[in-house]
Design brief:
The chain is mostly helical. It contains four helices and no strands. The N and C termini lie far apart (about 40 Å).
C-alpha cells in the first residue's frame, strides 16, 4: 500500500469536505489532489474517528453521484447550484 502524500491542514480539510459531499465525484478529488478512491478511503480512515469513518462509508456505499461513470450524463457539475451561498 503506497504512502499518502502529506497535505497541509487546509488541503486535508478540503479533501474531507469533498469526500463527504454527495455530488462531488471521487474523480474530482483525484484531479485536484491526485488521490484515487482507495487513497481517499485511507485518508478518511486516518483523519476521522472510527464511528465517523463508518458513517461515511455507509453513506458512500452505492451512491452513484460519487462516481463519474455511474452518473446521469446530464449531470456535468460537481456540486448543487445552491451549495455555495454568495
Amino acid at each position: 500500500m503506497p504512502l499518502l502524500p502529506t497535505f497541509n491542514p487546509a488541503d486535508t480539510s478540503r479533501i474531507i469536505e469533498m469526500a463527504w459531499e454527495d455530488r462531488t465525484p471521487f474523480e474530482a478529488i483525484e484531479r485536484l489532489y491526485g488521490l484515487d478512491e482507495a487513497a481517499v478511503i485511507r485518508l478518511m480512515r486516518q483523519q476521522l474517528r472510527a464511528s465517523s469513518f463508518r458513517l461515511w462509508r455507509q453513506r458512500m456505499a452505492g451512491r452513484t453521484t460519487k462516481h463519474q461513470a455511474l452518473r446521469h450524463p446530464g449531470i456535468n457539475r460537481g456540486y448543487c447550484p445552491t451549495q455555495y451561498k454568495r
